[in-house]
Amino acid sequence: MKNCVRQIYNMLLVGLAWLLLVHIGYSLAGTPSKVVILPFKINAAEDLTYLREGLSDMLTSRLAWEGKVIVVDKYKTQEALKGISGEIDEKSARSIGEKLEAHYVLFGSLTVIGENISIDGRLVDIQNQIPAVTIYNQSKGMDTVMPTINEFVTEINQKIFGREVGTTKESLPLQTPTTSDIYTHPERLLEDDQRVGGKD
Q1: pLDDT value at position 167?
Q2: In this structure, which topology does domain 33-196 adopt according to CATH?
Q3: N or C: which end of the chain has fewer CB within 10 A?
Q4: What's the mean pLDDT in 18-35?
């Protein structure tokens, strides 16, 4: 009799544990992914520092997804970067992500060599000890910088978050910045070009 009661008791415990695990699984599934975007390194012969913050803003606005993806505030990211010396690598990116309790950390570089433009990013999965995912995109001509960034973000959204958004360079032509607007925020340049193309 006691053995029978003990077996029923153990079965109840196992059942409750299973229900708890299922509940935790559903809760985690509904938790938005938290992403840290670190400042991208700009490699270019000319001064393109105006692109650094613009790139960060574009990545933030295009990766943020209500209820699905949260991008960590850039001021919190800057604070976390204060304790990091030298060039950002996967190890330091993981350290920052852990400090900010993030799920992912995105870092990389934008390189301009002559007419060739390339954006090279690495997305570190903080919770799973797996190698960083490398995402790369390239194009030719300064007029393709913004569309290239758009394609880069679209690839991240599709591969990592299963989100079908974004545009291609063909659908978003961008005129080469003139001397007067070289310091204009990249988002503004893109918006102005869309307006010229009658896409508002």
Answers
A1: 46
A2: Rossmann fold (3.40.50)
A3: N
A4: 55
